[in-house]
Amino acid sequence: MARKGRKCVPSYICVAYASLGALSLCGTTTSFVLRQSLRVTPTAGRYLHACPPAGRQRREGKPNEATRKGAATMATSVQVSEPMTLTEKIIAKACDRQSVAPNDNVWVKTDVLMTHDVCGPGTIGNFYKEFGPKAKVWDPEGVVIIPDHYIFTADPRANRNVDILRDFVNQQDIKYFYDITDRGNFKANPDYKGVCHVALAQEGHTRPGEVLFGTDSHTCNAGAFGQFATGIGNTDASFVMGTGKLLIKSPASMQFALEGEIPDHLLAKVTFAGGAHV
């Protein structure tokens, strides 16, 4: 239990991709007991103390009896330079700083840049305009291109968008390009992966602790995998293409408390969308 007078932060670290990312970025080698939730308490000494939920007991410095023989448990205290959220830890790691705080302007290194057939042509055009007609992307394996909006249309202008992506992939030797070869038969395209946000996860491009930018407002979906992911515009994306970096503002955290019972017709997406407008 937490010491008298010390309040635990109302959040839990659960066994999920997000918790794996958080623990791996603490700067100290840690492990944890599977299926055990832990409350986190920041203290004045910049430590994070693992506080078992009410009703559970913890033995100081001893492995949990429920773990298998030889398995380690989370240390009683994990020392970090500053108490930070998972997002802040990822951003701090990406800009080679010990810590970041909300509203800090920092240059972060990019692990993955995703673009598609809507914003890809504009991003590519601006990339060549600013970096030169013979410019090369910062990392051919870091750029992921997924045509998914116009790919099965008959409109020649929409098809031209996809053709621009194909030309760019060949010029830059882009490794991850999920294209189609037969518009008439959806099942005849083994390389095509569908909606870009689903494809990113299914093909292993969403990894805990990394930074992912995408030219789509729904890119933040990838945050479910314990990484910092957000949508950016064509201009920012073209800069990332050429440098692998981007100037961002470290975001603040928000907590939403939902009271009452959720009716059957109300889905998670609707609930979140309503909170986003507050």
From TrEMBL:
Residues 52-74 are annotated as: Disordered. The keyword Disulfide bond does not apply. Its EC number is 4.2.1.36. Keywords: Iron, Iron-sulfur, Lyase, Membrane, Metal-binding, Transmembrane, Transmembrane helix. One of its GO terms (molecular function) is metal ion binding. Residues 89-269 form the Aconitase/3-isopropylmalate dehydratase large subunit alpha/beta/alpha domain. One of its GO terms (biological process) is oxoacid metabolic process. InterPro entries: Acnase/IPM_dHydase_lsu_aba_1/3 (IPR015931), Acoase/IPM_deHydtase_lsu_aba (IPR001030), Aconitase_4Fe-4S_dom (IPR036008), IPM_dehydratase_rel_enz (IPR050067). This is Homoaconitate hydratase, N-terminal part.
